[in-house]
Design a protein that fits this description.
Number of domains: 3
Oligomer: single chain
Strand content: 5-15%
CATH architecture of the largest domain: 3-Layer(aba) Sandwich
Strand order of the largest sheet: 2-1-3-7-9
CATH class of the largest domain: Alpha Beta
CATH superfamily of the largest domain: NADH:ubiquinone oxidoreductase-like, 20kDa subunit
Structural class: alpha/beta
Helix content: 40-55%
Bound molecules: ligand FSX, iron/sulfur cluster, FE3-S4 cluster
Radius of gyration: 22 Å
Number of helices: 18
């Protein structure tokens, strides 16, 4: 499916959504929800404004605004089990700085965050017990959110979690097995992330590759909160995963490039570039392409929604996009502060048009192949080194 087909697709399933919401709706739940909004200092109007914002972000036709609002008041909440594997927890940080209604309202009222490694007060065996009970109680019904890559080398021994020393690989396998939906939040969970960067000593992989299961990827290092909240809301609303691109990223969030909606785009088109950090162009907010911006190669919507409740984003802060929502970006987008000459981006003054998405696609595929090549070389060197070590210890 193409990004242009999204609205038609959603209109074609609107009848099913209405039926589902009518079945799940309860005036009591709505009353409770309204009370909670008031307790948190929000008016109904604030909430409807937010519903309208998220409807637009999800690329739903405007007739869905009232349905998004209604989804908040369903009687059955969706249980969410949120795991942390190999990562930095930046994704949760980004999520916690979500738009209004604040995280407490969203997490505790619209979804039921049954388990979250980082936000929970408890620790140790009590937590393990709680996790196991939640899995049993919500078997086949819960959404499993995973943050972090999965070390797979040597049976996954490079990541152990919990009082039993379970490996991340075992834990992810066990907890995703009975989940209704699995969402990979962050580039680490989606594609391996920083752990998987060359030389990838722990054999880290994204969840789909490590476990061989169907999941939705919500990459970014970290992803913006709109993409995480929106994906959960999509499931609440439709009981369905969103249409995705070939990398299993929701099209509504990852269907266009950073460059397409960038606030500095007019400067790119006018051939006005920052040539050096701190120069006149930098002060005037000109395009960062020559300083290595990978916005023309990166599919994500940060240029529209920014971070920290819309406060700012990398390009707004004066640095180029480093392509953090693309697979293997640590390897294939580097060096981060130089343009990638091989990407085929034509800047004004050349042919006057930037590369087409087909050209970018083939560049990215090539770059992945190149990155795999580097990893393969790394493996050969490592295998040789391991042999040498083995020989020496014999
Ligand atoms: Fe990775 Fe998220 Fe980057 Fe960090 O959990 S995507 S290192 S922002 O925190 O996984
Ligand atoms: Fe924006 Fe980067 Fe594109 Fe320039 S190259 S317009 S800074 S996304
Ligand atoms: Fe990442 Fe680029 Fe957005 S670096 S946060 S995809 S602007």
């Amino acid at each position: 499916m193409n990004i242009k087909d999204l609205q038609g697709y959603y209109m074609s399933i609107i009848g099913k959504v209405d039926k589902r919401l009518n079945d799940l709706y309860s005036s009591k739940a709505e009353e409770e929800f309204n009370n909670r909004l008031a307790e948190n200092g929000f008016t109904r109007r604030d909430f409807l404004k937010w519903a309208s914002f998220i409807t637009a972000a999800l690329m739903l036709p405007p007739v869905f605004e009232s349905r998004v609002a209604k989804a908040a008041a369903v009687k059955e909440r969706t249980p969410v089990i949120w795991l942390h594997l190999a990562e930095c927890t930046g994704c949760s940080e980004s999520f916690l700085r979500t738009r209004e209604p604040d995280i407490a309202t969203l997490i505790f009222d619209q979804i039921s965050l049954t388990y979250h490694d980082t936000l929970m007060m408890a620790s140790g065996e009590r937590v393990e017990k709680h996790l196991n009970e939640a899995i049993q109680q919500y078997k086949g019904k819960y959404v499993c959110v995973i943050e972090g890559g999965i070390p797979t080398r040597d049976g996954g021994i490079y990541l152990r979690i919990g009082s039993d020393g379970e490996t991340g690989l075992e834990r992810a396998r066990r907890i995703t097995k009975d989940a209704k939906y699995v969402l990979a939040f962050g580039t680490c969970a989606a594609f391996g992330g920083v752990q998987a960067a060359y030389p990838n000593p722990t054999g880290a992989k994204g969840v789909r590759d490590a476990l061989g299961i169907e999941i939705i990827n919500v990459p970014g290092c970290p992803p913006n909160s709109v993409n995480m909240v929106g994906t959960i809301l999509h499931i609440l609303l439709f009981d369905k995963t969103p249409p995705t691109d070939l990398l299993y990223r929701p099209l509504w969030a990852y269907g266009s490039r950073i460059h397409d909606y960038c606030e500095r785009r007019a400067h790119f088109d006018a051939g006005e570039f920052v040539e050096e950090w701190g120069d006149e162009g930098a002060k005037k907010g000109w395009c960062l392409y020559k300083m290595g911006c990978k916005g023309p190669l990166t599919y994500n919507n940060c240029s529209r929604y920014r971070f920290n409740q819309g406060t700012n984003w990398p390009i707004g802060a004066g640095h180029g996009c480093i392509g953090c929502s693309e697979p293997d970006f640590w390897d294939k987008m580097a060096p981060f502060e130089e343009p990638n000459e091989k990407a085929g981006i034509r800047i004004p003054g050349g042919k006057g048009v930037e590369a087409t998405s087909d050209e970018i696609g083939s560049f990215l595929a090539g770059a992945t192949a190149a990155a795999i090549g580097v990893h393969a070389i790394g493996s050969v060197i490592r295998a040789k080194a391991e042999k040498t070590v083995k020989k020496e210890s014999e």
